[in-house]
């Protein structure tokens, strides 16, 4: 019997270690989705979590030996409930309150305290089976094994298959298995009066988590409807981001982690400005590299040039390029551009692709999301632009979207200085009004002089014209050039300026 009890307790330790890391990753990931700045959110979550674990470990000394097993089961019930509902509660907080960050910290602290109680209490429960040195080593080694498995299955299995919402609920139920197993195997050690109450609580919590899991799709739609003004026609959570597409009459919109990427009512203004100005500066554009732009709208514009022989599209998330080809609403908007035989789609990190690339391109067009987290900020660094220069033909032209020079003034000019520091002899900043975005900026660069006033523009445009391009390089006094230090991988200044700039206008 003692042998079985030992195995049951080791099982409890393993599940505890597995669930504890999952909860931490879930809260940090969900916070990153909603607030951006992944480094900040993971730092706050890890710091709060570790401090709370210390508090929990300290509080464990006040849990008496008399009802040690019963109290441990009680803590697991509370942990399963809070941990399982952590992400749904974060969705509620974001949809209906302005206190998301504090709710996130509160959940992290509550879960951390409960997890901090687990290990000391489990160690005490196992005292009669092992001496102290073996007891501590067994508990910690099994707990760390559970944590290792959690960190491996979270990004590769759980997030792609379930997303954060369902994963939280699922692991709340997994956490509940500890309470059920202990109630079954240690039934003779718990008083009948306590046993009935605990069983009742366990079944209620399990039913609550189970029902929430079953109706999670409906709940997610309800929450999302409060986050987006229009009807949601597509939503998926990938290992990289949350993708949502909405539609209202003829207005199709794409959001990544809650940030608008385009509106079909005016996206042509953005994509024509991004594509046609640099290509009009290339004598005969034949091969083009596009980094980002997995929606296919930029590629649609590039394909308007008869001289184009090949377009290499590099986008990290295969879900985006799949959406661009398989969703009839988006494929109609991009005119099936990604299915063109001239187009090669590669799902890879842009930085990694450039490191391995040996090909020289006549034009490199960057249509990446804004630098609102550390992973994206590195794609706006001088090191990244140095790689761009190495992959660009000597007479080639490079362009990047560069956020809003109005809302993120310092970030825009930081990108400009980073491009210059990346080794480009000439850089031309320009901007355009895109109603769904506001004033939006671009920076074009090359090793030779560039011209925006005497361009040989193609006729197949709705917005870009000779008259419009002449005004694009004119910046108002309050948004004109500001000398800024360049952004680097080690010191991502563009991230800080971007977040601060948009926060001021929220």
What this model shows, in words?
- It is a single chain.
- This protein is of the alpha/beta class and 506 residues long.
- The protein folds into three domains: 2-222, MFS general substrate transporter like domains (Growth Hormone, Chain: A, Up-down Bundle); 225-260, no CATH class; 266-505, Vaccinia Virus protein VP39 (Rossmann fold), CATH 3.40.50.
- Helix content is 57%, strand content 15%.
- The protein has 18 helices and eleven strands.
- The strands form two sheets. A seven-stranded mixed β-sheet has the order 7-6-5-8-9-11-10, with helices on both faces. Strands 1-2-3-4 form a four-stranded antiparallel β-sheet.
- α10 links the parallel β5 (287-292) and β6 (310-314).
- α1 (2-35) packs antiparallel against α2 (38-59), α3 (68-84) crosses α6 and α4 (86-96) runs parallel beside α8 (216-227).
- It is elongated and about 90 Å long.
